[in-house]
Specification:
Length: 479
């Protein structure tokens, strides 16, 4: 089933409540077309949301179809779809379908894959999602402000066959820097944020509001899909008294495994699907804690058990998702490409690595480039002026070695492909997994591989949006 979403034309705030809500499809804007792809309408425009609670202050945000986050788009693996995206903003926009392997012209990078959608205009995106899994969508224009003010939504591609869980729960995680009166704080793109960890906020929301308890039942098996749509915040979730099993990373099924130390670490733009078997006691509450940043741990929400169990014992059968049709890279014949991440603020307050960089940067962001990839800074949201850093012959396997020379964390995101992660700091990764957004700690080195089967000019950038805007971005070509 393909679900659709709101086509409400009112400016009424659409607030999706709390951690307990399984985001249902919002009825409305599907246009039936005999024989053709399913067709949906999305409109980006200003809106309002109650981020802190149901009776808290309204915050001015940007929304898709008056919903913040945007409507959950539920597609079916292998079924063609068409999105008519209208721009109700006062500035250019586009939509990038993050993680979906689709034709280059549908990728949503202004200047590189399409002209920007001007205010009042529309653009038609058409593609057929090859992979089932958890993806998301967001603008790729003025990204820091547009994503940072709420333009983002989940895109779920359903498996062809039904996957047996009791509930499929979606958590779209967003991070806000709010003022005392509940407005989004100004100062986007400050040099301090840009050169350090990015714009980390002071309120984390789940599905658009400060989370309430998630009510669960003993014995229940939940597929919890986590998506980090924050500009910069990294989360490390611990589920007290529970043992989450990671079953998919960035939409792609992986070898099911318990995360290291029971912490589900999720960088900006990443998605992680876990299976949670509810093994707690009826009537009790268990905290879900985010303790990524030293000394700043907090309770994100709680699992609140109802009195009546669903089953006497939690399931202990393995849970495996069907594989996606990803082409297997041929490591023996792979072309090696190295990517070195440079720049940012160092401990002593100096900018490292920027002085001698090639000045490909566009002006703006108040301070010029702060970061670079292999000595070149491409800033902003994408563009056509940047020559590709490397070109791959269509069909070759590429071994991409990424080295983080900086003192900061980055999520490196590749457009158009999913990469098989091979090694981290020289050691093979313990579980087979594919990623489009790879979190890298300071000084980390990661090797990945993919088959360059999708022609076009593709972005490769850090998804800490401040970093992307100030130079941690490049383009490669498959021809
Ligand atoms: Cu999620 Cu280039 O972006
Ligand atoms: Cu970064």
């Amino acid at each position: 089933m393909i679900s659709s979403f709101s086509n409400s034309i009112s400016r009424r705030t659409f607030v999706l409540g709390g951690a307990g809500i399984v985001l249902a499809a919002i009825a409305g804007s599907r246009v039936s077309r005999a024989g053709g792809p399913a067709e949906y309408r999305l409109r980006a425009a200003p809106g309002a949301a109650r981020l802190t609670s149901g009776d808290g202050p309204q915050t001015n945000v940007l929304a898709y179809n008056d919903s913040m986050p945007g409507p959950v788009l539920r597609l079916k693996q292998g079924d063609p779809v068409r999105f008519i995206v209208a721009n109700g903003l006062d500035q250019d926009t586009t939509v990038h379908w993050h993680g979906i392997r689709l034709p280059n012209a549908m990728d949503g990078v202004p200047g590189l894959t399409q002209p920007p959608i001007k205010p009042g205009e529309s653009f038609v995106y058409e593609f057929t999602p090859p992979d089932a899994g958890t993806f998301w969508y967001h603008p790729h224009a003025n990204s820091l402000q547009q994503i940072g003010r709420g333009l983002a939504g989940l895109l779920i591609v359903e498996e062809r066959e039904t996957v047996a869980v009791d509930r499929d729960i979606l958590w779209m995680l967003q991070d806000w820097r709010l003022t005392g009166s509940g407005e989004i704080a100004s100062g986007f793109g400050s040099m301090m944020d840009a050169s350090m960890s990015g714009r980390v906020g002071n309120l984390v929301t789940i599905n658009g509001s400060k989370p309430r308890d998630l009510s669960v039942r003993a014995g229940e098996r939940v597929r919890l899909r986590l998506a980090n749509a924050a500009l910069a915040r990294i989360l490390a979730l611990r589920f007290e008294g529970h043992r989450p099993i990671v079953i998919a990373v960035d939409g792609q099924p992986c070898e099911p495994h318990a995360p290291e130390n029971g912490r589900v670490v999720i960088g900006p733009a990443m998605r992680i699907d876990v299976v949670l078997d509810m093994q707690g006691d009826p009537g009790k509450r268990y905290a879900v804690i985010d303790d990524f940043y030293d000394g700043l741990s907090y309770e994100l929400t709680n699992l609140a058990y109802e009195k009546a169990p669903l089953r006497a014992r939690a399931l202990d059968t393995a849970f495996v998702l069907p594989a996606n049709p990803l082409p297997e890279p041929d490591l023996a014949k792979a072309v090696k490409q190295e990517i070195v991440l440079q720049g940012g603020m160092m401990g002593g307050g100096k900018l490292a690595g920027v002085g001698g960089l090639n000045g490909m940067a566009m002006p703006g962001m108040g301070g010029g480039p702060v970061w670079a990839i292999n000595g070149m800074s491409m800033t902003g949201d994408g563009g056509m002026d940047m020559p590709p850093l490397f070109t791959l012959r269509r069909g070759v396997s590429c071994l991409l070695a990424m080295r983080n020379q900086t003192a900061w964390w980055h999520t490196m995101h590749i457009h158009g492909f999913s990469m098989l992660v091979l090694t981290r700091n020289g050691a093979p990764v313990p579980y087979r997994q594919w990623q489009d957004s790879v979190l890298m700690a300071p000084k980390d080195a990661v090797e990945c591989a993919f088959v360059a089967d999708n022609p076009g000019n593709w972005m490769l950038h850090c998804h800490v949006t401040d970093h992307q805007m100030t130079g941690l971005m490049t383009v490669f070509r498959v021809a």
